Amino acid sequence: MTASSAYQWFKSSYSGGSGTECVECARVDGGALIRDSKHATGPEIRVQAGPWHLFLDALAQRRAE
Known about the structure:
Layout: E1 9-11, E2 23-28, E3 31-36, E4 45-48, H1 49-64
Antiparallel strand pairs: 1-2, 2-3, 3-4
């Protein structure tokens, strides 16, 4: 089991439908992880909770426009 498989990953609703632009996220203590779904064993970006929530709020505002 790799470290990545220990997390519950979910695909972003903003990912492209063609299968070429897929982003996955996983909630972790204190924030979130982000990775390219085509490279599940590749690098992950860890984002702390504060910046992650600011990012989600910005997406929600953009979606409302």
